[in-house]
Amino acid sequence: MPTNQTTASSLLADLAPDLRTALQRVRYDSDSLLEALGDEAHAALWRSEPVPVRRAARDAGELGTLIRLLLLGDAMPEREVAAALAPVDTDRAVAAGLLERDGGDIRPALDLRPLDLGDGTRWVLSDLDDSMRRRTLDTDHVLGVGQASLSLLRATPTRPVGTVLDLGTGCGVQAIHAKSYGQTVTGTDLNRRALWLAEATAALNGLDIELRQGSWYEPVAGRRFDQVVANPPFVVGPARVEHTYRDSGLAMDGASELVISGMPAMLNPGGTAALLASWVHVAGQDWRARVSSWLPDQGVDAWIVQRDIADPALYVGTWLRDAGLDPREPQAQERAERWLQAFTEAGVDGIGFGVVYLRDIDGPTEILAEDLTHHFEEPLGNEASRYFERSAWLRAVATDPDLVLATRFEVDPVSALERVYLPGMDGWEQQVARLHRGDGPLWQHEVDDTTAALLAGMRPDGLPLSELVELLAFSETGGAATPEFESAVLGVVVGLVRHGLIHPR
């Protein structure tokens, strides 16, 4: 990091307009990279295999020069770099901390890569990682667009809002994404180097983002926002800080607890939050109860989604490699021993990872914590917005079952009924019936024949639920629906509405 933070920040920000001109001129964007490299070399880039990429880039002109320089970290002749980055002056780029000299050649001092966030190409500046060259990461290392960042980008609701907070902004990737749906965006971080790079990233993309330094919620104390996004240092382990982008200094899942418990106080009325988090699985304790206990009793609608559960040994090995360490080296083995011992002492037998969605509401807190560990392609961001809409409708009718009974429902067009049969003594015997949602999180609900018959009546020209219930009761018992039968139907309907398998009309 340059010794004079203010000067370096100003130099890099001042360089941004010329650098943006160069990147646009050379077409240093996601689509052009794929076109220049081809499918095989492009795939090799994401596998951290430099040779196929280097071979493909040799014939790509000035774009190839930037690919080799900025994505592979190759030392390149200064005249080639100067031509590819024109009108950027090489001396200015070195002074600003973007490039560095290596004899007569030029190397990158920072990672600079294009990213399509769905609203056109953005460029993101971060520290060099070890994807193409082995290197040990410094304590204040600023991570680029990794898998966690991409997960949060896909998980973030993007309906237009007024104010957005990016808590723990890092290189600023969530903040620049937020400018596509938020009128004003504020990013915070404890790491001064992160704010330096976030400021440069914002300037490079011509975006106005407020940046504040400080720990957790301190930089925005007393303020509230329409939406908050957070990719905090959620790595679970002993209380220590080896890398600020992942380690909080809090033991086990203390960082996730701190962020989740403090988030409701940051939301405007009706405001929402989307954050990544991790939590420990302890023998004899339900993870749902653990995470739910971090939320207040009033004012929150929460959807907590567990996407993965990691074995402690696999978890430690993954994060050691993330820091550029080889688990076979003595130093890494010592860290792994301490880490796993801390898990043993805390009774940890697994580490859950997922997304937490919160919405400010007026009334008692409502929480749905569930596993979504199966594979699905569609991002959760838009689904979260729809989930809160469905939850609000259910909340509005919760105290008056007659409102639900008076409602007409329709099965979602992408919902499908599956029946599974296995051979038996008398031929095919049904084992299970499931209602599948064909989009979004691909939810499944096991249903019985009574529920299947109920759903068959939920058509665009169908009857109110009360009439369907009476018809169903008569077909099964020859009499009127009992309160118990009616209550059971209402319970099924609530679950199917919450997951978007049926909709009120």
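The record above closes out task 2.4. Task 2.5 opens with a second protein, given below.
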Amino acid sequence: MRTWGPLTAVCLGTFMLLLDVTIVVVALPDMARALDASLSDLQWVIDGYALALAALLLGVGAAADVLGRRRIQIAGTVVFALASLGCGLASNAEVLVAARAVQGFGAAAMFATTLPLLGAAYQGKRRSMALGVWGAVSGGAAALGPIFGGLLTEGPGWRWIFFVNLPVSVAAVWLTLRWVPESKGHAARRVDWAGTVTFALFAGALTYAVVRASAVGWTSGRTLVTLAVAALALIAFVVVERRAAHPLIDLRLLRKPAFTGILLGAIGYNAAAFAVIPYFSIWLQTVLGMSPIRGSLVLLPLAATSFVVVAAVGGELLHGAPARYVIGGGLLLIGAGCLAMAVLDAGSTWRALVPGLTLAGIGTGLVAPGLAGAALASVPQENAGMAGGAVNTFRQLGYALGVAVFGTVLTSRMQDAIGHDAAHTAAGGGAAALRGSVSAHEVRDAFAAGLNGASLTAGAVGLAAGLAVLLMVRTKPASVAGQTPSTAAEPTPEKALQG
């Protein structure tokens, strides 16, 4: 157990926090009915977690280097567990959204410390082994999230997708205390709290503006004011980072086209591949009448193709291939998969999604192994940890913004056919409540049109990100030494582990 103890503790926490990114997708319709939640409420159930994770990841990681990584890991797990309890006990949508944001804060503390803790606990071949297992667990969490969500939602109920975190958190804390050694980074390093706050304000204000735009319009005073706040926060972040002794992101790295291209690829990857999935889940359950389990199984081709088929052979086929072709080509396939799903009409069934999900899954399997390695290869070695953290941050930010943007596109297309109020009711999982005022055929036709619009937008994002990578990235390898396809869900090179 001395060999496997630290790895088990770290992997348990990683699996739990990444599972919670996708596990709520299938439960959204049941949450809407139980809490009388609107579409924007459901969007914030997803985005509250992803935004907190993205906005705080770099700052909390820097704090962990100073205060102690094991200490921050345990504190984050406790916060995550208490917030999960709050999510499960939530009596209304507002409480659920707030608890999800706190849950994301705990997840950021956990995620920021996982790789440095493994780097301190293992050396040589054991470190490579640990990285491989950790990467496989990370990929498995993304693949199993919707399945677990469907099983729990249809079984004991949607609240148990949060309650199940409690015993897992207890086990993770005990294992961490028992087997994980404490480690710290550079003693003289200071935490860039000003950068953390301004970046969080920018990301939150921008996402809020996009979510609210679907309800009040892009030209409304509230939307414009929130966009102005986001712009000012971004300017403040740039000013802070230029003056900080230990910035979250060294802005000079953005002068490197390869690094900037990888960050654009990271945003586009999570947005195009995953952010439209929640709306397909709502359509499958509330319009087509599928159960949570059956609805989750429809989404399986995306995960299965990526993690079972491509990850099984991609390492041998793609080792040493130019990163821009592997990552850029994968993003183009994701974009093409999204476009292939934009073929729905009132008579469509779940089978219409399978070709596009499969194609997007192939693209996902190509992008994931090379994304982190290419980011690290595009910067000096001393910036490896910063580059890896930036990729994780921008991936989660892409997911949060994608959910907001695609929801706005969905409702704008739907309201052209059935009106504003009916469109928001249906998109928020309340299609059944429209019976008597809007025919079932009209709802199916409007929802199909909305999903087509969202899929086309996601496809455009994927294609644009792919082209950006092809044009800007010039690093040679699509993977780095010691990294296998299963480890590539997040940065795993040894030098990044040093924190």
